[in-house]
Protein 1
Amino acid sequence: MAAEREIDLQRAESRILEDPVVQLVSGEASKRGLKVYLVGGAVRDHILGRPHKDYDFVLDKFCASFLKALGAFFKTTYFPLGKGERVYRLVKDGKILDFSLLSGNDITEDLRRRDFTINAIAYCPRERKFFCHPRSLEDLREGRIVLLSPRALLDDPLRILRAFRYMATLGFEMDEDLYREIERKGELLLTVAGERILMELDEIILSPDPSRALWAMARSGILEVLFPEMSPLRGLQQGTHHRRDALSHCIAVTILALQMAKAKDPLPFPEDHQDLLVLAYSCLFHDLGKPETLTIDQDGNVHFYGHQAVSRKKAQQIMARYPFPNQLKQRILRVIEN
């Protein structure tokens, strides 16, 4: 179990009220008689004392002049997200501000529709008051990822990957009930847009420590849901020079390579995120061709002659399904084939 964290709501409230984005949004809302709540991850991160760049706000009613005023300040314009969604977004200098309209009769009812208990938290600057699910603070304190309702994964299957991301970025443990739900419903990820999946995968890879998340994704079968080309690697033994099967080997190599790159040990490694993504995906996909190229000689030695070319072809298939940027894709393929 993760170590318990100190939860000090007074300090969290001070951080929220001193946040320039919150000050701006709440000030513009007050001018128009709007009630605004900061919700979800931004509140969670303020409580944990973590940096963040994304803000989710809930409004009690739609007000175009409010969104236009914020857009003018940030020198950008707001735009709606999705079809039929009552969510509006502003993007400026790496910060993302999302505004949704209140669901249900009040903020407490709105919070019941969220993904995990650790995100079912809101703060109202006007009332100077926190609102949260009964388990939210306890789960934050104990570092536990708990599903808010049985429908949460059905409503948005991307939450499956988000749970693994929180393992990597927050260092939290996944609740056993959530883990079993993910094992049962992992195939729902096939209904999610590729760009959304790739964004979550990239965040896991670029997190300070993706190891626990990647191993958990392998154990639960989620890696093979996303990349069925990896399924034949499970249980594939590689001879006396390897202690792990090919699937575990690919994961272990990916983790070790990222650890060495981030530590710049034994060699300096660029801090560019694209370089880390090239390294990680190249390691993850580098042995995809081994099942088809397996041979055993007369002495019982295992060989995989030409597996690099087959691995490259399979990696190309994977990256055709997900919107990898072309330059990133070409760099990954060059590493795999060499």
Protein 2
Amino acid sequence: MRRALVLLTTVVVAVGLAGCGEAVDTAKQTFPRSTVPAGQGGDENGGSATGKPKTNDPAFSNDKLRTLDPCGLLTDDILSALGKPADNSPEDFGNCANYMKDKDGKDLSITLYVGETINGAESADENIGGLPAMVSELDDHSACFVSVITSTNPNFGIRVQVGGDGDDLCGTGRTLLTSVVDLVREDPPQREEKKGSIAESDPCALLEPGALKTALGGVDTTISPYTLHWCNWIGDKITAGVWFRTGYDPKDSSVDAGQPVDLGNGLTVYQTAETSNGASCRLVWRHRSTGADGADEIIEVDLDNSEPAQGDNGCATATAIVQLLVPALPKP
């Protein structure tokens, strides 16, 4: 299902990455564990761009990152320093892209991700805006990924992906992310408030742990957020996931969202089930219309069971999770 696909994608990308640039001596920090030490907390003013970088700066808390408008971080002033900007393209609650030209007139594609899991954060050996940072580049130099780690346990951060025909995509990414970090600290652009929106909701916080455990048949799970809008609960043989995203209404005939299932109280979800390798069920529905093409607020609930009972496709359990989730959601 969805989680397995993401993990596979992460591995494929990681295999193709190579280091970009040398470590900055004044920012270098060796992390002995698989996560950046939680004790490296920022003070009120955050880390220094010329001293030791710090995570867990209050200005970059997960709750505050959820309130940010990612396209508001790609300002005309910031992008104009890199070339000739095009219009920003919102791609999800935490993502925004701009497909522009660099100063030499070459294609330059920029995608900003706010609140992403940062894999390999123990390798962060640079300092961008007072935050631990890491830089990776594809072997063919067609894209560079520049990330800052904003919080730990788990490691979350802000990442920019830069692609194009220019000679120094990593330098472009560093320049861009430095400006973005400064803006978050000094004048963070806020989302336009919309009644009932899930954009600022934490999916990990909406399901009562005891009720979820009961819905999963008494299975113990560990919370594992993937992004600020996507949360997994992982057990030995069963995994549940809740994902808040943007997209097309699944009832649209052009979207292959599965079979409609009426759960009552005006809620119709669209179901896809797979039993060829364990049991996997996906339930998806539109929470709120935004009026923008392809940008409605969508909720997806996934259930994967590697050893289901005979005849169990996972959808009864997924439905139970939906019924726990819906009352906790903001009301459109």
Protein 3
Amino acid sequence: MAHFPEAPRPYYDLSTGISPYTYPLHMPDPTVLARLPEEDEEADLQAAAAFAYGVSHSNMVVAGAGSQSLIALLPRLLPAQRVCLLGPTYSGHAQAWRLQGVPVHLVTDPAALQQAATQPGTVCVVCNPNNPDGRLLSADWLHGLANTCAAHGSLLVVDEAFADFEQESVAPLLPHPALVVLRSFGKTYGLPGVRLGFLLASPEVAAQARALLGSWPVGSLGLAAGRQALRDTAWLHTARAQARAAHTRLTTLLDATGLRHTGQASLFTLVLHPDAPSLWRHFCTYGLVTRIFADQPGRLRLGLPATDAAWSRLETALQAWAASPKSPVSRPGS
């Protein structure tokens, strides 16, 4: 935003896809920060995550300092001759595997991923819901893909970073011999600074992951936050309803502006426009931070505003865009 000094403040960050509904965390007593985490606290966090994600036993839960740290762990944990990604998707997955010298192949058709799963030694990776386009595959389809992987000596990683609001999870299928699931805490509970994420897998794979992470992979703040929030089903139910209503509000505004969009994820939507960089700059002049993609120039991701003031700013910016003769719109369905 340094290039837009005249933009109104405060800036509103709509670029992340993190929930705008922050969990009302009760901060732990500061004295817990003066000691190392206890084993019973770590075990209780695993039990809370197993409850939240529908996993039958906590021995299939691995906690880490954010799901990104667990993505980076995957090449050390899972044997792979090659990786097949269903994309376009979050770039962190390809980066993690390529850093370890594993060939990465990108496909855009789920049928092509099914074909890749029949090649022994392949790790298939799916983000569900996908980031940034919000594509959502059914748990039944993913179950079939996991079975195909198991039958052919391949593996399936499903990154469910945004799944808490969509309820299409494959985590309850565990233990499954070919399945690994990733979950994000910060995106769901609006607490990304806590740095907490989970890897869910068979007991054998989970034990290997814990050994690779070493002692105390989650700090005391993450332990406290996870143990509180993951058992609070009433809060999650309310946040899920709020996010769905906000997503409808957002897409209604986009429709009124004539901007084409796609995606089933509640926490963000993807705007499709031939001149997305111009739309991004327009939002910047209104103090709104959105996300464009260097490798996907016709796409812009919008998250959910957190306050009435942010919604008002967004609505004003969209109205101005629609009224601008320099900025052609793309009508829904075009």
Protein 4
Amino acid sequence: METKHHIDLTSAEMANLWTAYINDTMVICVLKYALATVQDTEIRAVLEFALQLSQSHVQQLTAMFNEEQLPIPDGFNENEDLNLQAPPLFTDTYYLTYIHNMGKIGIESYGMALANSSRTDQSQYFTNCLTEYTQLFNQALQVLLSKGNHTRSPHIPKPKQVQYVQKQSYLTGWFGKRRPLNAIEIGNIYFSMIRNMLGEALVTGFSQVAKSQEVRNFMVRGRDISAKHIEIFGSVLSEDHLPPASKWDAEATDSTVAPFSDKLMMFHVTALVSIGISHYGASLGTSARRDLGALYSRLMAEIVQYAEDGANIMIDNGWLEQPPQAPDRDQLANKND
């Protein structure tokens, strides 16, 4: 009779599950609050589908942690991190755009988790998550399109023939005449603007409701960084007479009642900043003009520092949950000294 051997999770698989659990418990709190305030029925349907996905994920992830005899992360919960009595902090349109962006992030993160999975059950779980978030993305996109709220990147003329780069001047950008942006660079810049606009509205709302002055100051600083990055990206597009994305000036209401704990808001913002860093890095790697590479490097350094300052605030307040980590072999070797 053949004996089945249990294969332990790899460190990558452990990281996938831990990260997914923390994120899904946070998203559940955000979506429950959104559903308590949203008025539009079509947007409500999208939010309900997103909540259903996250709740199902948490159930499955909890079962996996128990099966692997791993401690279940604290994450976030309705009793400590959510105030359903708070008035609306964001508009219905913002929540729809938020979910659309959440779909994008989910597709990216679940795709990476799938690529890093070795066990069949893990690859199947993240394959399912990837399929679900593709559905969520498309559902949110269709509602955005039907309401005329979807923001498209700029149009450029279709090329008439295949072309090859002839001179090294294609790469220049610091001195002399710069060539026009190519389609890849336009897309990178435009969607960097969109992500910063989403972030700017989010931290604007959070800055109004955070209980701690330190957290409020952190959110105001994030708002100002996002506004600056939006202006910089817009000026790069304008240089080639390309339209920048329209700003969302009123997506945060004037509420000053906190729907979430300071812990949740800090985690949410620092997590989005970490994703922003990876997007800037990808944009840097696919931008041929040297001035754009320098620009992304400079902006990335600024938000890396912002993320570190956010992590320090979370550590000081006991809010930063630690992921599984390798043992300290030197400490173990000296344990009996």
